[in-house]
Amino acid sequence: MNKQPKYRQVADALRREIDGGALPPGSRLPSESELSARFDASRNTVRSGLSLLVSEGLITSSQGLGYEVRSHEVFELNASQFENLNFPQNGDAYSTDVTNAGRRPHQTFRVEMKPAPEDVAERLTVEAGSTTVLRFCHRFVDDVPWSTQATHYPAWLVEQAPRLAEPGDIAEGTTRYLAAHGIEQVGYFDEISTRMPTPDEARLLEVGAGVPVLLWMRTGYSGDRPIRCTITTFRGDLNRMNYEIGDLSARSENEPQ
Amino acid sequence: MNKQPKYRQVADALRREIDGGALPPGSRLPSESELSARFDASRNTVRSGLSLLVSEGLITSSQGLGYEVRSHEVFELNASQFENLNFPQNGDAYSTDVTNAGRRPHQTFRVEMKPAPEDVAERLTVEAGSTTVLRFCHRFVDDVPWSTQATHYPAWLVEQAPRLAEPGDIAEGTTRYLAAHGIEQVGYFDEISTRMPTPDEARLLEVGAGVPVLLWMRTGYSGDRPIRCTITTFRGDLNRMNYEIGDLSARSENEPQ
DNA sequence: TAGTGGTCTAGACCACCTC
DNA sequence: AGGTGGTCTAGACCACTAC
User: Fold this and answer.
1) How far is B74 from chain A (nearest CA, A)?
2) Cβ–Cβ contact A244 with B under 8 A
3) Quick one: CATH architecture of A6-69?
4) For residue B239, which of B192, B187, B200 has the smallest C-alpha distance?
């Protein structure tokens, strides 16, 4: 008989309507009091069911407006080509991609001197807490917060490439700037994970409950040692990453989408 | 003055204690009634605060036991070496990795004939709904559900390599079996995304609220066309993926962790 | 049996949005 | 002003776990 609690029945019924298309993306759900009548449940019980759907990322709620079915539109980042020698770094490749997609990119930028967090220090093979240059970038697409990117450079590198520590963009791109100073990035190590956003991340990316973040950590190497560590935090509902590996000549003509 | 609602104050206070180490991973939180007294709030208000932390993936709850601080232990998968010509596919590489990590792997396996879902059909360049062979694998580490993996092979391939459609493992690994039949995978295209689990996924992976899944879709190519599409669903709290790209000779000696 | 969390109710008041 | 969701309370009963 496996009777489900009432708030789950509410959630399941609404989820079916959403999945089945009866409630298409962008549409409004009935109000809490309407649902309360329909399911013969108290308002609080209906709210429990709705909050389940919110935490699954299916719907959003806004005070005074109501509940709305989320619409999904993802932006795809090619991580294996990003930062090819031909591409500038620090958002320029990203801006180009976004513009090509017919969207309007925008970013804020700042530079700080920061002690290296433990995970970064480990990857840069410097002592935890030793000073690094942090170049931080907050990215928007059509004014929607999209991702944050924090790149740490070790102190020894900054001595050879002092403009890293100066505020403001490096027009030609940091990768090229570094290459011009004899620091060439010949490989990188990417780590990808996911989790729910911290309150800080939720604020910066303006995500509510039910939307995880996608974490991308890239450690760049010269011929003899790590030269940078970049941590990108994506809104999980708006971004997807891809890697092209090996011979993909069979793919070139007809890509999905 | 920016006064926070009481349930957020509760969540913030407990989050600080967790982040600060006063409540280490694995430890029990005070009971709801204790917290209710401590914060001078009703039990329901305390529950709202706790459920926030649950949805952030910081704590778990179990009936009759209480709330517990989550402990995190991640398993890392090297996606760029996985399935090198030297490695068998379909879990064997995975099992090897897991065993090397001193853990006990375990998996269930089944084979079905299935119409291709739209996204898979697109990637295999076959018509949506046309028949594919689905080889499905449910993986555990020390009896904890870890990931699911579903590989679709197009019908034309199965004619050339009939054992794909037979139930049961292919001892030498499917990649090698295919290579022996003249189908060599020369490249692949990986797509990575994240979202909250569907109820089905939550059941298979035994994840509660607050734990996203990491989705990995790999399309493998021969010299002229796509030969398979593998969709892996990881528990986001237990897994991390990495890619090694370019020259990483500077990394080989001292890897992080 | 006692203590824990899980479900549910009925009602109050507040904050926000639209008209 | 009227409707929406957001917060909070007090209390009831149930299900699970420990002892």
Assistant:
1) 10
2) yes
3) Orthogonal Bundle (1.10)
4) B192
**Mutation for A interface: B75, B239, B243, most A CBs within 10 A:** B243
Q: Are strands B75-78 and B239-246 parallel, antiparallel or unpaired?
A: parallel
- Cross-chain Cβ contact A214/B193 below 8 Å: yes
Q: Tell me the average pLDDT across B146-163.
A: 92
What does the pLDDT look like over A31-79, one tens digit per residue?
Answer: 999 999 999 999 999 999 999 999 888 999 999 899 999 988 888 998 9
CATH of domain A75-242: 3.40.1410.10
Interface contact A225-B189, CB threshold 8 A:
no
A125 shares contact with chain B (CB less than 8 Å): yes
Within this chain, domains A6-69 and A75-242 share the same CATH topology = no
Indicate if the pLDDT at residue A104 is higher than 90.
Answer: no
Answer yes or no: do A250 and B226 touch at CB < 8 A: yes
CA pseudo-torsion sign B112, B118, B122, B128: positive
Q: What mean pLDDT is predicted for residues A169-189?
A: 84
CB contact under 8 A, B226 and A251: yes
CA of B150 to C1' of C7 (A): 37
Reduced to 3 states (helix: H, G, I; strand: E, B; else coil), residue A172 is coil
Average pLDDT of the segment spanning A217-246: 93
Token duo for residue A118: 């433990």
Can you give the three-state secondary structure of A15-73, one letter per residue? Answer: HHHHHHCCCCCCCECCCHHHHHHHCCCCHHHHHHHHHHHHHCCCEEEECCCEEEECCCC
Q: How many CB atoms sit inside 10 A of residue A146's CB?
A: 24
CA A194 to CA B235: how far, in whole Å? Answer: 9
Residues in chain A within 8 Å Cβ distance of B207: none
A64: nt with nearest C1' to CA: D4
pLDDT beyond 80 at B97 = no
What tens digit of pLDDT does each residue of B25-56 get? 999 999 999 999 999 999 999 999 999 999 88
Phi, psi of B19 (to 5 degrees): -65, -35
**Alpha-carbon separation of residue A56 from A92, A208, A215 (angstroms):** 33, 11, 19
Contact criterion met (CB below 8 Å) for B237 and B208: no
Where do the structural domains in chain A lie, given as residue ranges? 6-69, 75-242
Contact by Cβ (8 Å): B35, B43: no
List the strands of the sheet with A239-246, edge to edge. A75-78, A239-246, B187-195, B213-221, B226-235, B144-154, B131-141, B105-115
How many Å from the CA of B24 to C1' of C11? 39
Average pLDDT of the residues in B72-85: 78
* Strand-pair partners of A139: A107, A147
